Structures
1.
Amino acid sequence: MRLFATDIAKMIDLSCVRTWSNRADIEEMVAAARAYGFGQVSVLQCYIPHTRQLLADSPIHVVGNVSFPSGSDSTSVKVIQAQEMVDAGCDEIDMVMNIGKLKSGEFAEVETDVKAVASVVHPLPLKVIIEIMYLTTEETKEACRICMESEATFVKTGTGWADRGTTLEDVKLVKSFVGDRIKIKASGGIRRLETLLAMYRAGARRFGVNLKSGIEIVQKAGEFTNGIEIED
């Protein structure tokens, strides 16, 4: 099979989720998403109504972020956030798993938390962020199990706020645990087309990328007029 620039753009969630992200940043991201055909734009909760309005006539999806970036909110607060985002017109929801509870071995509580949000979000896609860069191999395995048991759509590797970005080895590790039972979104530190393609080959099917890198990746992919060969 071959991937073209248009295919790659649709797999990218452009993100504008920094503390200092402002209205002008959101509008710049939306304009780029329209121009380059990105599939999704990810924003903080306060910008969802404005982003939805900007994309009212567009197939580009709006992604809301629950308990971002810490994941430490109570389940009841996460449920309220998720419901508000659904009501505001989000097409997809990303939520941050309670990493502290996971690392404390409180797996049942973490699973209950994720399932509660999943029930509110359904049937919209839910991506659960596990911040793999802070987890041991066994904790990663448990996080992936919880995502699958909760019927989430994606395991998402990170928020992009961690001490390091996602690596190819991270994607391979998640894939070793989930197989084809759940999709993988790689997020954080993806700056080059080569990195994205390597992660795609390892099993990732969605990518969280900032605006500058997203444009550069799609422009680079566009240089391959006959597409990029991917082994079946």
2.
Amino acid sequence: MPSSSPNTGSEPTMSTARQSRSEATQTALMDAAEKLIAQHGIENVSIRDIVAGAKQKNESALQYHFKSLTGLIDAIHTRRSRQTRQFRAELLETLLTKSSQPSVRELCTAMVQPSFDLARSHIAYRRYIKAFGHELTLTESSALSVASQHGGGGASGQQIGVLLKQALPQLSNSSYQRRMDTAIRLCSASMCHHARQPNAFRGETAELFFHSLLDALVGLLSAQESSETKKLARRLPKGTQPT
């Protein structure tokens, strides 16, 4: 009787199929979580709801792929921030081909436009903003730190930060940090609120929102510090100053 040899050609196919099913399950869980949290708020959504929304048979699917609800939400932030970083990097590259020292308004545009355009083009990204846009506004920690933890900055975000600091020589390092923290919270609150309006990110109403937000950011970052602010910043210990 001839000896049988293992069918080595089937292993990569089986492995690829398993990987494909795994990725499809992860995507379904993330999509379901975004949709449900956008509709009801994270405090009103359970793991069971998400698993059912993703058409999975039991809760172990979420635990297997993400360990916990926190792990799932971290994965959602990573997925969306990857989209945002890619868009921002391309935008910044185009901007720097025109000038090595972009204006404050151009840099603010590079901050806001990636999320705005992605939300305008993709309903799933709009849901993400509705679901999680308030987090940066309400965080008790530094909004800059939280944004970095979510992976939203990346190399392009850091480069925009350096260029903005150069474009705002009237601000000290601590003043710049306070302004940027406020700017991030303003963007977060504004985008989240706009995402909840009828016909969000559509037509001239959306364009008006976008340019009004840019006006507010430029004004916030460019304003001279008052003598009262400077005096208080010198008197207060660094650890007690708002961030």
3.
Amino acid sequence: MAISSGDMNPAAKPRGESKVNSVDRALVILEYLGTQTKEVGVRELGQAIGLSKSSVHRILQTLRARGFVRWNPDNARYSLGMRAFEVGCGILRSMEAHAAAKPHLEQLVNQLGETAFLGVLDDSEFVYIDKIDGRRSVRMYADIGARKPLHSTAIGKALLAHLDRAESDRIIAARPLARFTKNTITDADALRQELEKVRRQGYAEDNEETEEGLYCAGAPLFNYSGRPVASISVAVPKIGQQNLQRDRIVKAVVQAAQEISAKLGYTGRGKGTTLG
């Protein structure tokens, strides 16, 4: 599917193209390369984003010179360069929640043996900003930087439940609630009832709502002002006796979230830990 950076008609590009348009087009190229799992040729890239081959080639040369893209001389194709990774990681250094949560995620993995995640809100989705793999061989299909829906995930519901009602309602109404499994909540009123439950008990659950065979428990992280700034979760494959450990998993996640929130300056009370 082609992506666009607004009005992008390569044939109409004036010789003295504004710097703003040039930057916008370079960013579109970086965004597209960031979605690819393989190297991309100039022609393919131009077709995908709606730019001429010559325009794409010119921008790629600048990005390559700065290290933001990498060129493979064996096949003349491009991929993201390490400089893009370095710049992207800069946001983590500015996120207090990331630094505060890291040791607690590691502790959760050591304690439970399962994969732990940290996510932050970005418009009507959340983005994973950290992940520590558990000791199991079961692969969790979520990587740092991946986006996930709010309505079907433990991290997402933990965030959504503690936003201001107006903001929460705006996000719920922004797009249809997509169905991923038979357990996914796709009705807005039913989701609001679920979020009320999350607010009361202090944690959220994804009981095979995003992926069949997977259970997740998540809890919000609050800053000094009481605003949810991130969420953590633990993902557990529902095999063997894993489902019998639900209470243990929830308690561990809630405790970790409370300890991280305290590091962020949160002193509020009333975020329950009742197991429903």
4.
Amino acid sequence: MHLLGLLLCFAATTATAIETKVIKDISYKDDVISQTPYEQERCKLDLTVPAGAKGYATYVWFYGGGLKKGSKDVPTEYCAEIRESLAQAGVAVVTPDYRLSPKVKYPAYVDDAAAAFAWTVKHIAEHGGDPHKVFIGGHSAGATLALLVGMDPNRLKPHGLTLGSVAGIAQVSAQVLTHYTIREERGQSRFGITCDEAAPAFYIKKSIPPILTIYAQNDMLSRAEENMFFVATLKSAGHTENYSVRVDDRDHSTVGHNIRNLDDPARLAILNFIAKQSASR
């Protein structure tokens, strides 16, 4: 099912920007004493909320970088602009940092992503948000993290949460097979094909949360095809809340980074997906 036909309708309802508020560098893990110095450094998030609003939806967004690089504070990741753009439309945005390879190996960065999502569910009400309307997503490797947290029930179990805590997953150009960095950590080929417990596609079934898949017309080699395979396999499994958007005239970087632009099709698709799924929560 495609969302492009709904984008103009949604755009017409979000023309007026909402004032926002930013809270930076919140530690999202409680057990600070038991954390390594690297964990204490990286396991922090920024929260951008629509000022004065109540009961709003929240989107936890993970940047890309191949699980090897990236930061919420690096300008080229556009995290600040993306969260500001979405928050101006009334959706709070959480942008976490997470530990990176090779300083850590799988599943450390997935565990961090799960902890950041769990923090949001447990604390967003303190900032005016609705804990039943917490979505998760990201770009590239960040999208892979979002899918693993939102599709594998074992990721959230240590936090006392279930997949029912995930209002929906809006992911952009994820690697849905086992990520090449994880394969490299195992001494395998970067270009080998693996689909095991580290792969989002491994967890496809009818009962997982709603998913929006966005990818680029000129995405990186095999990434568009991987996302099309993912969408088709979800459909085959009977997963009905399964949406997809191919954004024309974008490559692997710009399909994620351009979400900061108000008229960007991927941005509008994400906002429409969040609005649609929030209505039933």
